[in-house]
Amino acid sequence: MSRLPVHGPEGPIRAVTAPQGPPAAVRAVLFDFSGTLFQIGTYADRIRAALARPVGEAEMEALLGGLEAGLSDPAVAGAQRARDVSARAHRHAFTTWYASVPELAPVAGELYEQLRTPEHWVPYADGAAVLSRLAGAGVALGVVSDVGWDLRATFAHHRLDGWFSSWTHSFEYGTEKPDPRLFLHACRELGAGPAETLMVGDHPAKDGGAVGAGLRSYVLPAGAAPGQVRGLDAVLRLAGIGDG
């Protein structure tokens, strides 16, 4: 495998020979999970389910404000570092955050288990159609996600697993995106070269970092609510499939 050029602040340190002809056709697409193909239900709904009692608007606003404030807590921030390198670290990171709100501390474990429960995740409205068109055009599909558990049950519950033939979970490899090893492992499993593979996600540094492994990358805009149209039709255009 050829070595990728090392870049200084202004560009490649060594001269780079531009490839001849058009870019390679996209033969494989890798998808992130949360924020890309799925989004979990709202925190308000999850909190009500975990507390198993009515929660008024004023109380809910206070609880959500507590979660927001908790993100700045040094203990919570520290727990997020290397969060996705193991199942244990992932659980610790999230339960530490939930428990930073005193009223939620007793149900921190239950809130975490919601993450692992397929029913709490909502696919974006345009995901199935886009995956079907990609697979129908012969594009190999894989998942590369920073996560603390196996995602296949969630995809299967929503009948979105059948299009995928590669699953790369960060916790199984002891590292996180944008570590090139994750992207390159998925490429090998799909039988596609990095230059023939597109990574789709919602995080500029993690998913956009796939370019450091020689892939192409498309980063979705932020702000889509659970169940909305995500704008995944752009992936069809990038893969050269019709007009999306």
Automatic annotation (TrEMBL):
GO terms for molecular function: hydrolase activity. SUPFAM superfamilies: HAD-like. It comes from the Bacteria. Keywords: Hydrolase. Its EC number is 3.1.3.-. Pfam families: Hydrolase. InterPro entries: HAD-like_sf (IPR036412), HAD-SF_hydro_IA (IPR006439), HAD_sf (IPR023214). This is HAD family hydrolase. It comes from Streptomyces chitinivorans.
